[in-house]
Amino acid sequence: MRLLNRKPTRGQELALIALPFLLTAAVYLVFSALRLADNPNDKLLPSPAAMVEAVRTLAFHADPRTGAYIFWVDTFASLQRLFVALGLATGLALVIGLAIGVLPVMRALLHDFVAVVSMAPPLALLPILFIALGLGEASKIALIVIGCAPVMIRDLALRVDELPREQFLKAQTLGASTWQIVLRVALPQMLPRLIDSLRLSLGPAWLFLIAAEAIASDSGLGYRIFLVRRYLAMDTILPYVAWITLLAFVSDAALRFVQARAFPWFAAARAS
Amino acid sequence: MRLLNRKPTRGQELALIALPFLLTAAVYLVFSALRLADNPNDKLLPSPAAMVEAVRTLAFHADPRTGAYIFWVDTFASLQRLFVALGLATGLALVIGLAIGVLPVMRALLHDFVAVVSMAPPLALLPILFIALGLGEASKIALIVIGCAPVMIRDLALRVDELPREQFLKAQTLGASTWQIVLRVALPQMLPRLIDSLRLSLGPAWLFLIAAEAIASDSGLGYRIFLVRRYLAMDTILPYVAWITLLAFVSDAALRFVQARAFPWFAAARAS
Amino acid sequence: MSAIKVEKVWKEIGDQIVLENISFELASREFLMLVGPSGCGKTTFLRMLLGETAPTRGRILLDGEPLPAEPDSRRGIVFQRYSVFPHLTALGNVMLGAELREAPLLGKIFGARRKVLQEEARALLAEVGLDHAENKYPAEMSGGMQQRLALAQALMRRPKVLLLDEPFGALDPGIRGDIQALMQKIWNESPLTVVMVTHDLSEAFRLGTRILAFERRRDRPEEKTRYGATLAQDIPIWPRRIAGALKI
Amino acid sequence: MSAIKVEKVWKEIGDQIVLENISFELASREFLMLVGPSGCGKTTFLRMLLGETAPTRGRILLDGEPLPAEPDSRRGIVFQRYSVFPHLTALGNVMLGAELREAPLLGKIFGARRKVLQEEARALLAEVGLDHAENKYPAEMSGGMQQRLALAQALMRRPKVLLLDEPFGALDPGIRGDIQALMQKIWNESPLTVVMVTHDLSEAFRLGTRILAFERRRDRPEEKTRYGATLAQDIPIWPRRIAGALKI
Amino acid sequence: EPKKSFKVAWSIYVGWMPWGYAADAGIVKKWADKYGIAIEVKQFNDYVESINQYTAGAYDAVTITNMDTLSTPSAGGVDSTAVIVGDFSNGNDAVILKGKDKLAAIKGQKVNLVEFSVSHYLLARALESVKMSEKDVKVVNTSDADMAAAYKTSDVTAVVTWNPIVSEVLGDKDAKKVFDSSQIPGEIMDLMVANTQVVKDNPNFAKALAGIWYETMDKMAGADGKAAKEAMAKASGTDLAGFESQLASTKLFAKPADAVAFAESKDVGATMNHVRSFLFDKALLGKDAKSADAVGIELADKKVLGDAKNVKFRFDASFMKLAAQGKL
Ligand SMILES: Nc1ncnc2c1ncn2[C@@H]1O[C@H](COP(=O)(O)OP(=O)(O)OP(=O)(O)O)[C@@H](O)[C@H]1O
Ligand SMILES: Nc1ncnc2c1ncn2[C@@H]1O[C@H](COP(=O)(O)OP(=O)(O)OP(=O)(O)O)[C@@H](O)[C@H]1O
Ligand SMILES: [Mg+2]
Ligand SMILES: [Mg+2]
Question: Where is this protein found (chains A, B) (predicted)?
Fold first, then answer.
């Protein structure tokens, strides 16, 4: 039978899925053990026990001075920034993307500008951003928005373009005004596509968040990673990275779930 | 007439396209002039003349110590890293993406693993990367590859999935082996889609490049930006950012051009 | 009343002449069938009737007045594909026209008035034979069901003119027969003037009250851009079909 | 020789019984038409003949041997859509089968041998009436042209059995007539056993040598999963059509 | 014009951790209230960004070294006054070689450091001490955050960096410290620098800063000093022992009088001379600078180094004096 037609059984499938994860873990453990045997104080590849210990201290022991549980404070601060920023970016993308997609005048005005802006590396403009917005939450959120929104706007405008022209004509024969077309034809069909776009933006958003927190912050997962990086405290960094990965993965899954639930028509419409 | 149906004339269109660019330039000039009036040595928003001067020095005057034309050396170093890395990422995406998309066994093995890896923030894992690959070009290129490839792999596997099942069946009735199906059915249809994916990766790739060059380097656009950031030399940073934007924009246009030229069947096939 | 008058209409697209000097008058309540070889400009002509694009020369009058330059609710349309909204259920699709009319701001009706509109929409759905599918999304329907739905949707807004561009071209023959009968019934019962493009001559004779054939007289490659299609034939159907007077 | 024997075949998908106890024998060179209401399992049956999916119970024999469990070059197929490769020209699509046969590693032939294959492919293209379109990509072709191309592509590999799943369902009636004639010509001239699914009874009678009708005897909702479709009718066409002996 | 609220930027470094502690412990608020003003003390993770923000005018004062003051705000036209000389690096910055214990062995090596930072300056001074110059080595810019990891790679053989990275790197068996800032005592100063115009218009702001600083110093020396240091250790991502070891290589002026004495000593002038010629060499005194004299530096005794018409960097011991006299 051709390899292409060979489907693993459920059991084989689970084994195959687990394999690369286990392999990665095994490789880590071997190298960690080797390094630790050489130098018990090696910080680069700490033992699992050391990582558990580090996380336990951060997650379950209140900071004596402030009474805060650092791990959770960091997580909360980062997630708050991330969600606020992605919310803003999504809102912007929806409004501007729809405008560009639906209105020829707005397309002329903004399409090329957004295309150029989306190519600019926002990290290099940080000093200006910080001056304009101060060093508080605003500038961190702004960095994420500036990093993610232009791409999302372009994506959404493209998606509006992909709606069959016939839908707009049809709506007009049903008496729809421009506003009504946006509201009842374009917008509801863009919402599930916006979720796709948002999912794609999760990765870059985390990147910008970490970069912003690395520069000016006093809490957050990215802040902590950069703070302890000076000491090469991989026993903290690695669990933090795993935790960020997990958070991103869960957000992604949640978005997919929302998409399937809230827009039952979408999966079929996309397939056809 | 509905706003939706109102198309600007060619002249109006050009004016509208130019407007936001001119506006941005005007806002910059006003604020720059205000700050410079206050402090003629202000570094944050230098005058256009100062920027031209800075670029001229870097681009047309050989560095007295090394005899190099810094601007071009930086550009060349960065582009080389970027292209090598994107080439590698593209190759990886093609091979692994096709494998996941075509072979159920490889899908079980790698699909979820790649999904998880694509969520990990690569910047935080730099120390391990350094140890594994050293501090030279390899680790910079690896950072870009690690940052871009998982997303491209996922994207490509998804695109293979989107090929109608019927094509694979049809090919089998024409006697194709798995290998032949990959080579003559899946691969050629993936190439133009890979260009789409590559275009989407340009933004993140520049981001990772700049981040990598900021960490350890002695040339490159990102290196220079972070170096002169130490004394807030925005007269160098801003032209560099504009230059990066231009380079990214041109690469994007070039990729679109290649796609249209090399795959004449693709535009129509995508539309239908 | 919804008579159409076409006066010396020319249409050029780019530097190609697509239609050349088309003139005819169409009385109210006619069922006009537009036929002609592929690429002769039938769709282009329909798009001018819709107001999506304007004639290069000449003009089109609707009830004696120049046609508005954009689509409006007097002219309903059913395309070959993409005629219903994928994000709305069958009922939502049919109600949309009424909702847009009555709620300029939100485009959505609530409360008691919604109930009334729903009943109206359900009656239309029943008429096109979709009474059991009101909660289905288009993607869950066959092509034939979608085109019926598109008809019901267009009728909800009570257009004076109904434009149809090969609405049944993609359907299976059996299903096609049903929907043709439905189409004739609708034309018969509603105050509609119908213009329908088709590739299928037998369909044209079965449904129409009049058949117009477009044709490119000169179709050699070097002539293609310099001469457009003209009105080649104008065939009234005999015995005459008269809307409302006819039993099927 | 390419006789098919179907022995007490059952097919369940999930916990729904789709087909129930289907048995029949098909002689070599027959042109079998498979008809039945939508959803009765015609496509499912064809997919079993193709080897894409296996019967739950019973078995299918091809020339006395169990059917291989995956598609191979003895059984060609034309689907309703997606039957040609969008990235290859018409000529490339037709040549593909031969190239795959002769170049296991690259799947591509060069040089003199390529010229020979090209001529062969051109002859086939001419036979299906696409001689002027050999450099066109499928997206540049109409639906009818694409289905002709799919036929030529399948024939290039000289299958013993040709499976067709409503290949002309989406075509306009005029074009449909042409392609039906073509189909009959092909069957007549090549050593083929044909199994074709159709919705169109008149097509079935026009082309087939034998008609099988599937039907769900019990189709009330609560019975739907517990009883599958069975072979309801088996109609030989009279006067008998015999491949190679018949003039159209 | 006088203003009521002020913003101070500080970044995470051993000599500046007291600022964070002072903010958390309410010392900042106490002194601000005393002078009827509001002071916001903002922590930066990234030192460079704090300098940039100050230079761009978003902050009124910043914790910064003497060298960076001259190269960035002062060269950028922002007239700046060193209100407090908090400490100088006394071993906190070091040149470290892998496997070689003589500085001279650095010849021909690649040296990883943060270019244009005090590390770069330290390297220049170190090379001078063995009659070499920067031409004898190859400098590779490397971010401080990644220096510890970079050292562990085989292609890195020489680094110049600061604490806590120095102790991190020295944890390695073959890491040898061949030169450190204790060999150029007093040359790398950690300052609290404020905008001169702001200080002139609002002397109370500078007084409050001095008040905050020396009260915090007292706290650290006093009974609950251990708790204070523990808090600072935690905030800088380490533990008490790690923090103490960093403090050990920092000459912290716990008493204002010591700081005054240091600021008024001749050594400051000599140091600034070294610093400005180093910066001029690297073209960091501005593009139009024709000589190291381009930017004027006013010392505590009002003597000016360089262009007296373009004084942009001033040492002012008066506020520390007030603290020493208990007149705040
Ligand atoms: N947007 C366009 N740009 C350029 N040419 C066009 C455009 N639309 C139509 N044409 C040309 O106008 C002519 C008429 O096209 P039209 O679609 O009206 O034909 P048709 O009679 O509807 O054909 P069919 O029966 O295939 O639908 C064709 O030759 C076509 O090439
Ligand atoms: N992959 C599947 N999963 C679940 N049910 C399926 C699947 N494929 C087919 N079925 C079910 O099997 C039955 C037969 O489907 P099939 O497509 O074979 O019918 P058909 O006779 O070809 O119909 P049509 O004329 O509409 O093409 C249907 O009731 C369908 O719901
Ligand atoms: Mg048409
Ligand atoms: Mg079927």
Answer: Cell membrane
CA geometry: angle at D60 spanning D59 and D62, to 5°? 145
What H or E segment, with its residue span, contains residue C248?
none
Instruction: Quote the strand ranges of chain A, DSSP E.
Output: none
Task: Enumerate the domain spans of chain A.
Answer: 3-45, 52-263
Average pLDDT for E8-22: 91
Contact C208, C200 (CB under 8 A): no
Strand partners, E98: E175
Q: Are A215 and E144 spatial neighbours (Cβ–Cβ below 8 Å)?
A: no
C99 burial level (CB within 10 Å; 0-12, 13-18, 19+): buried
ipTM of the assembly? 0.85
Residue type, E50: S
Instruction: Compare all CA atoms of chain D with the CA of B267 and give the residue at the minimum distance.
Output: D139
Asked whether the beta carbons of D164 and D197 are under 8 A apart, the reply is yes
> Any idea where the domains of chain C sit in the sequence?
4-74+159-236
Average pLDDT over residues E174-203: 92
Core vs surface per residue B206-224: b (16+ CB within 10 A) or e: bbbbbbbbbbbbbbbbbbb
The Cα C83–Cα C149 span in angstroms is 9
The chain-wide mean pLDDT, for chain C, equals 86
What band does C248 get if pLDDT is binned at 50, 70 and 90? very low
The three-state secondary structure class of E210 is helix
Closest to E250 in 3D by CA, of E117, E41, E94: E94
Instruction: Using CB atoms within 10 Å of the CB of residue B27, give its burial: 0 to 12 exposed, 13 to 18 middle, 19+ buried.
Output: exposed
DSSP category for residue E11? E
What digits encode the pLDDT tens for the residues A191-212? 999 999 999 889 889 989 988 8
Nearest Cα residue to E171 out of E96, E244, E89: E96
Q: Residue A213's closest CA among A234, A199, A227? A: A227
With contacts defined as CB-CB under 8 Å, which chain B residues touch D157? Answer: 173-175
Burial zone of C158 (CB within 10 Å; 0-12 exposed, 13-18 middle, 19+ buried): middle
Q: Does B44 touch chain E (CB under 8 A)?
A: yes
Name the DSSP letter for residue E194.
Answer: E
Query: What number is the average pLDDT over the span B185-199?
Result: 94
> What separation in Å is there between the alpha carbon of D41 and the centre of ligand 2?
5
What's the rounded Cα separation, in Å, for the pair B253 and E264?
62
Instruction: Check if the beta carbon of residue E182 is closer than 8 Å to that of residue E90.
Output: yes
Closest CA to E297 of E280, E314, E283, E318: E314
Phi, psi dihedrals of residue E314, rounded to the nearest 5°: -130, 135
- CA of D45 from ligand 2 middle (Å) equals 10
C53 Cα to the center of ligand 1, angstroms: 13
Closest C-alpha among A103, A125, A93 to residue A215: A125
Residue D1: its pLDDT value, please?
A: 59
Question: Quick check: B269 and D106 CB within 8 A?
Answer: no
Chain-centroid distance of CA E89 in Å reads: 8
Taking domain C4-74+159-236, whether its CATH number is 3.10.120.10 is answered by no
- The correct answer on CATH 1.10.150.450 for the domain covering A52-263 is no
Instruction: Output the 3-class SS for chain B.
Output: CCHHHCCCCHHHHHHHHHHHHHHHHHHHHHHHHHHHHHCCCCCCCCCHHHHHHHHHHHHHCCCCCCCCCHHHHHHHHHHHHHHHHHHHHHHHHHHHHHHHHHCHHHHHHHHHHHHHHCCCCHHHHHHHHHHHHCCCHHHHHHHHHHHHHHHHHHHHHHHHHHCCHHHHHHHHHCCCCHHHHHHHHHHHHHHHHHHHHHHHHHHHHHHHHHHHHHHEECCCHHHHHHHHHCCCCHHHHHHHHHHHHHHHHHHHHHHHHHHHHHCHHHHHHHHC
pTM, full prediction: 0.87
Q: Tokens 């374009």 map to which residue?
A: A186
Classify E284 as helix, strand or coil. coil
